[in-house]
Amino acid sequence: MKNILIVDDDAELRANLSEILTGKGYRTEEASSGKEAVERAAAQEFDIVLLDLMMPKMSGMDVLSELRKIKPKTKIIMITAFATVDNAVEAIKKGASDYISKPFKIDELLITIRRALEESRFEEGIKRLDMDYTLSSLSNSIRRKIIKLLSMKDGMHLMEIVRELAIDDHTKVVFHLKILKESGIIEQDKEKSYFLTKEGKKTLDCLNILESYLSK
Amino acid sequence: MKNILIVDDDAELRANLSEILTGKGYRTEEASSGKEAVERAAAQEFDIVLLDLMMPKMSGMDVLSELRKIKPKTKIIMITAFATVDNAVEAIKKGASDYISKPFKIDELLITIRRALEESRFEEGIKRLDMDYTLSSLSNSIRRKIIKLLSMKDGMHLMEIVRELAIDDHTKVVFHLKILKESGIIEQDKEKSYFLTKEGKKTLDCLNILESYLSK
DNA sequence: TCTTTCTGTGAAATTTTCTTCACAAGGAAT
DNA sequence: ATTCCTTGTGAAGAAAATTTCACAGAAAGA
After folding, report:
1. End of a domain among A81, A108, A124?
2. Which of A130, B122, B160, B176 can pair with B156 through a Cys bridge, CB separation 3.0 to 4.6 Å?
């Protein structure tokens, strides 16, 4: 049973949505203001928050920021009567999962909700293990350099990498390549050249995210 | 001197933009198709790519994905004649820096470009050092747990943390707290309670990003 | 063929990280 | 005052990560 918080100042719309979603097997709660939404979300776990952008006092955008801060795992779907590209852009940048505009077909909303839940299902479960592998690979700067190198030039040979890194002892590089291979970040083909696996590319993305994020 | 790649199938628009931007002190290049854009971007570093969404053959959205993959640092501004919220949402989700719609005022574009450059200036320079600290802090799972704990409950005392983590030797926790303190992720107030610094909150965000990212 | 380069292994040495333990000052509670 | 809990410090040891070195087979070039 998934918990959905409906945030809108229009009581009728809340009631409608609530009824429909309850009928579809979701558990719903309502909040009529941004402040109330934040309080409820802080007190209780929601899987999804349906958030109206236009509300008196605390704007939906502020609520979005606040919710993201206190509950980063909760998926937020922005809803608005006056959809503008700018608002949509801002909302997604701030971490909303999706953005739909009134009037919406109920099917459209249901699909959007399912999609968001799918996302969180993934994020939730499966692999907390990967985390350890990935982070311990990333914790070494030589390995980070190797990943970057391979992202720029797929299929490098050992000595190419060694020279590029300007490390004199090639076995040192072999050591790190082995670790990267064991964590599934890189692979080798028959010609012995190294390249990033799918996992490796994800890892690279992570690195980039981290870098850009840390310097903001 | 900043390099801008203008990607649009409309030659006249390209020429116009190019002239204006050159006049403003940017160096520009043009590409008339998605394919050409990707090739050029692969061959040369651009700071900004102005990318038309609607193009024959390879759609702007595909080009966006491709560019993000090969040049994650390049900022991409999507431009489109038929702005829709959906497109904007998709573009930003896929990593575009911004999204503007034709017809746009040239000032608007210039501001958008400056904003994007500002972003990359930040991401570029400043701190590659933080990276090492942060990643080595994150590489240990006890420390990750501490960060998560503190994110849920600011201002915990030593023994609170110790009990929450179910670790019997408190000095072990002290050890990790010290490391976190030294890397500037946490601090203590006069009452000895620990809390996340601003840096620490960023680090937490990183962790969340990584987690959600790794399980996709 | 002979030499050189590339790709690696395995063991030992070193460094770094983490854990454990002995101890102690300060405050609160009895 | 005595006892208990909290918050540490510092040294020592254990474990893990990294580096260095000696060596070797396979492939490539001369």
Report:
1. A124
2. B160
